[in-house]
Design brief:
The structure is a homodimer of 346-residue chains. Chain A is of the alpha+beta class and 346 residues long. The first copy, chain A, is built from 7 helices and 15 strands. The interface between A and B is large, with 92 and 92 residues.
Chain lengths: 346, 346
């Protein structure tokens, strides 16, 4: 059983997942993994994963058989487990709890060599649908306070399997960074009765220089204080705290914007490794002990997607301070991507 | 001129250092660099760096000539510059200021192939003395609110030059992570009239299982909620907020503990890349507008060193949430290092 432990000085939870099977001397940099017989996520190898939780597949195919377009399966080496009780407790001044939660893998395509940047948007739309379905299902469990939905692409981004996939982790605490965002959103709303994300978006749209894609329902931009070169955020233009409520037409539009962003990053950075993170709201089913920022979520929180290309090393300065040095101005990144897009259209 | 920009939602400053000369397409993973004629930090190449700010060298040698044991020089490609005014300003809802500060390099040895893990402790002591001298000097400038002192060792840790060196960055804001620590320390002191770092240390010493080195003046331990495998913290046993006030005998002891920690990590992790960060107190010379946690620093803040081996990839989960998965329990790491140490002594 893994454990969640809280740093007593910095308010941060860490999952200690020692049972994941690595010995102290047993660290390796991830390398690309081959498809075919050895790949647990390739079509035909369905028995190499735990039984599927949800899939997009023709009606005449059976679960855990070939023929699918997308599968969601439990992670075979989960950092958290769904069975048991959270069992919050103290050890002297330290706080800890059992590693309860869910750790799922979205197998995005039967094809080992599919890349999201190539699209088509319809294939990305299926991934976005899987996130909605699993998010809604996991949030029926009030123990699970937050769902982290993310994709690691490429070895530099920490992907240990090359087969296209993303991950969903439902955790029994609200992570530190999400908590900061929720608090900031609540404080801002308290002062202005407006959403801080809506205002940020309005300002970026007015200034124009960091906008990459300005589409009917979604805006992709390089944020003012980007941590990483070519970091991109995608916001829905209309205020909404609930990703799962996104309609299917809107979802198809989002898929297209994502595909464009990922495709434009290639000429800029040469097929970079990247992480993306879908920032959703915490679980409204969480009741006793929930902090006051939970109540105002529909008004002050705004879901969004962050795309983080992994081209710079994070070093002592960043680890020690939580302060970042970004060698590319976000205006320059946006300009570069707009130029790529304009050439593409011509 | 670089800029400091603040994320309007998460309270975090980023240095946008676009002038550091990299074009958008121009990213490379750091690789080991050769010594000799091409290395700007090797002995004999003193003219390849800006003039030295401080050095340890025999009296019969002139500044910027060979013969030195340690040099401190300004970074040739600084992320921040000392000349000018901070010029704090808003752009709509965004906050920014000019990139004022200092960015210095501590050249730790004339020898390209010296490694800190090999010692001798006397060579590390010289590095620790350089940190004291530069910290005291930089804190005479009230614009510089915090000094980040760190070492990147190895390509995975972001070191762009292989010659042994560390860096000092003096910044015009208190970084986010330091601010969290200062606030937590103040709150704890307000409740208990005790230092949270002293209490953490006392608890670790009582529990014993995460202690690696328990020496007369310093304790090295694997913290309860370690972010990374084999993360180690070194605390002075006696409460002190002021690293610069450390006496020379105590400093020599610290050098020895550091050398042992770095040496023991080798059999554990195979000569890992690592970052270390010396967490000092913010600049007491900062006057107008300083938050209340500044006043109580001598009582509630406790300087400490964090050693962060870079053996795991940080991925979407961590970037998105500020929440970490650590595959090695700190008790196991400490046990492993104690075993190495005991074999070493036998």
């Amino acid at each position: 059983m893994s454990e969640l432990r809280k740093d007593p000085i910095v308010d941060r939870w860490v999952i200690i997942a020692a049972e994941r099977g690595r010995r102290p001397t047993d660290f390796e940099t991830p390398r690309p993994t081959p498809g075919g017989a050895a790949c647990p996520l390739c079509e035909g190898n369905e028995r190499m994963t735990p039984p599927e939780l949800w899939a997009i597949r023709p009606e005449d195919t059976a679960p855990n058989e070939p023929g699918w377009q997308l599968r969601v399966v439990p992670n075979k080496f989960p950092a958290l487990r769904i069975e048991g009780d959270v069992h919050r407790r103290g050890v002297g001044m330290f706080d800890m709890m059992d590693g309860i939660g869910a750790h799922e893998v979205v197998v995005e395509s039967p094809r080992h060599d599919w890349t999201m940047a190539d699209g088509p948007p319809k294939a990305i739309d299926r991934v976005l649908e899987a996130y909605q379905v699993r998010l809604s299902d996991l949030y029926r469990d009030p123990r699970l306070r937050y769902c982290v939905i993310f994709r690691n692409y490429g070895s530099e981004a920490g992907a240990t399997l090359s087969h296209p996939h993303s991950q969903i982790m439902a955790v029994p605490v609200v992570p530190r960074r999400t908590k900061s965002k929720l608090k900031a959103a609540l404080e801002y709303y308290g002062r202005k009765e407006r959403c801080i994300f809506c205002d940020t978006l309005a300002q970026e749209l007015a200034l124009e220089d960091r906008i990459v894609i300005d589409e009917e329902e979604f805006v992709a931009f390089a944020p003012f204080a980007s941590r990483f070169p070519f970091e991109l955020h995608i916001y829905p233009r209309e205020h909404s705290h609930d990703y799962a409520a996104l309609g299917s037409e809107s979802r198809a539009r989002l898929a297209k914007v994502m595909q464009q962003c990922l495709a434009y990053l290639r000429p800029a950075l040469g097929a970079p490794s990247y992480n993306y993170v879908l920032n959703v709201a915490p679980n409204p089913a969480h009741r006793p002990g929930r902090p006051h920022y939970w109540e105002t979520l529909p008004y002050d929180y705004h879901w969004h997607l962050e795309i983080l290309p992994r081209v710079t090393q994070v070093a002592g300065f960043e680890w020690g301070t939580g302060f970042y040095i970004n060698p590319v101005a976000p205006e320059d990144a946006a300009q570069f991507l707009r130029d790529v897009m304009n050439e593409d259209i011509r």
